[in-house]
Amino acid sequence: MPAASANLYHHLRQAFPADLETCAVETDAGQLYSWRDLERGTAMLANFLQSLELPEGSRIAVQVDKSVEALMLYLAILRAGYVFLPLNTAYQSAEMEYFIGNAEPAVVVCSTANFGWVSTLAFQAGTRWVFTLNDDRTGSLLERAAHASDQHEVAVKQADDVAVIIYTSGNARVLKDYWAWRSPAEGGDVLIHALPIFHVHGLFVAIHGALINGSKMIWLARFEPKTVLRYLPQASVFMGVPTLYVRLLNEPGLTQEVTRHMRLFISGSAPLLMDTFKAWQRRTGHTILERYGMSETIMLTSNPYLGERQGGTVGLPLPGVSLRVVDGQGAAVPGGEIGDIQVKGPNVFAGYWRMPEKTAEEFTLDGFFKTGDVGKIDAQGYVTIVGRSKDLIISGGYNVYPAELESFINDLPGVQESAVVGVPHPDFGEVGVALVVPRQGVQLDAKHILDQLKATLAHYKVPKQCHVLADLPRNTMGKVQKNLLRQQFACSSNS
Ligand code: MCA
Ligand code: AMP
């Protein structure tokens, strides 16, 4: 079961070092925050949120740029016992309207620049409060919280209350041991935090990992390879999606010397190519540790810290996680054979928000969650992911759903039908390509289609290329053969 938000906060708080005056977070803008700053700042924000007298279980939706105050807001929401709903800063109004309409948050926090349209959407959806928070510490949220007390009693919650749409603190403790986080008494670890904080990777794996170990974080407002290089000599742990490793390898300044103090490089969220894995070993002498997880399950497998880290695999199931590979009928396949990956464990989520039918569909009768990933397990227990049965593109670690894009494109004037497929890309690993069939007699302009997508959707979702075709290849059942389109357009995307 998911641990309650406030309980999770207790676990994180217990790990704070005894000396609260030491540095907890150092930003790339040179600001230093002590553990006491975190303790007091989160108390003030939690007191302020509680002063709003929100109903039990209220959601607080947050679409703000990365900052330490945004981190404190997350921790304050845990402390106060509400439900944190982080939203990608790339979302535009149609996407925000969907999430706000669906989650019905009592409070929305956004940037001052977006306040106009976000507050209109939010108030229409019944939200009671909209506050602003900017990455330069301005905005109405901090102004209001400045008057709140810096002493706060952590809210009392049941163990199975929803905390953040997803998570457990148990998974964080497993990873602390598995990745051999060094306690402050052992000299401590320092994490370079370079990921967005609206996803499980940056929010739970990275932040919880550091906090539950009492470790300092070097907090980068955004990923910039040269900034990472600058901080590597002061750090010991780095976490990234494969694109971050690819971009760091493009820097001549990435050397054995600059990574000499590093203890661990971890990769996840998307497949790490063997080329990247080997190039990293050659350049730095470090072997990247690849692990596999999902928002629904947090971390599932990991290469070992001390044993062999096998490139191209995602390692072994973590303690407490049962992982099996099954065929189309749900029967376990023999070792080494490819099938659907299913998982079970205390880290698996309780279900999709207000979608009991979808939740039921995604679990087997014996309680395994269907990941939608396709893979195999070798004789040593190492898991390799070979593909996905779900129609999903993972681009630079962000999920892009072809169905969302196809439905948008199909509604454009003059479009008969469309297909969006993922093809390999040297920087993002995989990117979308849109194939569009016009209605009879209509001339479609591919660039105009992409421009219209860009005007409405988060830009990372927009296919990097669009081609107008006379028709789409179909099999005898009439189903579009996306595999043929993937092959046909594989080479044209490397731009
Ligand atoms: C930005 N763009 C992208 C992406 N990011 N396009 C495709 N895929 C992307 N990931 C678009 C921009 O909108 C822009 O378009 C153009 O590409 C160039 O942007 P660029 O400046 O290169 O991007 P950036 O700002 O440097 O961002 C790249 C990034 C970022 C740092 C790799 O995408 C990122 O932080 N990714 C990590 C995501 C993550 O944390 N995922 C974890 C979720 P235009 O010019 O048109 O505006 S998965 C998870 O949590 C599970 C549990 C797990 O296992 O970890
Ligand atoms: P998300 O839904 O954003 O949490 O993304 C979860 C998905 O990311 C998984 O179902 C996998 O398809 C993919 N993923 C995560 N880690 C890895 C990895 N190391 N290798 C390949 N795919 C991964």
Quick structural overview:
Helix content is 30%, strand content 22%. It has 495 residues and is an alpha/beta fold.
Beta-strand residue fraction: 15-25%
Ligands: methylmalonyl-coenzyme A, adenosine monophosphate
Biggest sheet details: 9 strands, mixed
Rg value: 23 Å
Cα separation of the termini: 45 Å
- Tally of DSSP β-strands: 22
Let me know the CATH homologous superfamily of the largest domain. Answer: ANL, N-terminal domain
| Total DSSP helices | 15
Q: How do the strands of the widest beta sheet line up side by side?
A: 2-1-8-7-9-10-11-12-13
Mean pLDDT: 94
Task: Indicate the topology.
Layout: H1 5-14, E1 23-27, E2 32-34, H2 35-51, E3 59-63, H3 68-80, E4 83-86, H4 93-103, E5 107-110, H5 115-124, E6 129-132, H6 140-145, H7 169-178, E7 190-193, H8 200-211, E8 216-219, H9 225-231, E9 237-240, H10 242-249, E10 264-267, H11 274-284, E11 289-294, E12 298-302, E13 316-317, E14 322-326, E15 339-344, H12 356-362, E16 369-377, E17 383-388, E18 393-395, E19 398-400, H13 402-410, E20 415-425, E21 429-438, H14 446-456, E22 465-468, H15 482-489
Parallel strand pairs: 1-8, 3-4, 3-5, 5-6, 7-8, 7-9, 9-10, 10-11, 21-22
Antiparallel strand pairs: 1-2, 11-12, 12-13, 14-15, 15-16, 16-17, 18-19, 20-21
Helix pairs in contact: 1-3, 2-3, 4-5, 7-8, 10-11
